[in-house]
Amino acid sequence: MAKPKKQEKQLFMTRLMTPDMSNFSGKVHGGMILKLLDEAAFSCASRYCKTYVVTASLDQVVFKNPITVGDLVTFKCNVNYVGRSSMEIGIRVEGERIREKKKYHAISCYFTMVSVDENGKTLPVPRLQLESDTEQKLFEAGKMRCAMRNEIQERNLQLHVGID
Ligand SMILES: CC(C)(COP(=O)(O)OP(=O)(O)OC[C@H]1O[C@@H](n2cnc3c(N)ncnc32)[C@H](O)[C@@H]1OP(=O)(O)O)[C@@H](O)C(=O)NCCC(=O)NCCS
User: Fold this and answer.
1) What is the pLDDT of residues 15-45, one digit of tens each?
2) H-helix or E-strand spanning residue 91
3) Most CB contacts within 10 A, which of 36, 44, 58, 149?
4) Strand, helix or coil for residue 159
5) Which residues form the domain of 96?
6) Which candidate, 80, 79, 76, 78, places its Cα nearest to that of 103?
């Protein structure tokens, strides 16, 4: 019997932070980082499910340390959890000050990406093959966050009742 094809669940993207990305203080713009995060999440999700994907949501974006012009920044993406058509992509961003030989944890966050066809209709994504205890733990955590997201969305709607 043919061996099942290994799933592409991880993606690493490295970028040099150039002066055009900075704000007045020489740190990299938060908006620029969000754009790169979205690009990395798109690439990871799309390569996993082999379709076009859209960003449904982004949460738990925690900026732990500022990123400076000249730093080398790596976006470490992983498909943590999949539903029917959605995928949770966890991203850990690590910065590197090359001359100082120093690495730091810059950001962590979770994207929900949804597989769609050319008309924007959702498509089912492949089941995630969990191959280690860590992958199993990531999956369970992603499943829990998915439920939390739905609950927050629901409760937020309640807060808006009666407000235009
Ligand atoms: C995301 C989108 C495809 C969902 O379409 P929909 O018709 O609401 O489809 P559904 O309600 O069946 O949801 C599809 C999946 O998306 C998930 N989803 C929908 N809205 C979500 C949200 N706000 N956060 C997280 N997940 C969400 C659902 O849980 C579902 O997951 P599942 O299939 O794994 O169970 C649609 O809302 C869309 O196209 N949004 C715009 C996306 C976009 O333009 N992004 C770029 C922003 S600039």
Assistant:
1) 999 999 999 988 999 999 999 999 999 999 9
2) strand 86-97
3) 44
4) helix
5) 10-159
6) 76
- The 10 Å CB-count burial string (b at 16+, else e) for 125-141 is beebeeeeeebeebbee
Query: What string of pLDDT tens digits covers the 164 residues of the chain?
Result: 677 688 999 999 999 999 999 999 889 999 999 999 999 999 999 999 999 999 999 999 999 999 999 999 999 999 999 999 999 999 999 999 999 999 999 999 999 999 999 999 999 999 999 999 999 999 999 999 999 999 999 999 999 898 87
- pTM for the model stands at 0.95
Question: In angstroms, rounded to a whole number, what is the distance separating the alpha carbons of residues 164 and 157?
Answer: 12
Q: In the chain, how many domains are there?
A: 1
Report the separation in Å between the CA atom of 162 and the middle of ligand 1, taken as the mean of its atom positions: 25
Cβ of 116 below 6 Å from ligand 1? yes
For residue 71, the domain's CATH number is 3.10.129.10
Please check whether residue 70 lies inside any domain of the structure: yes
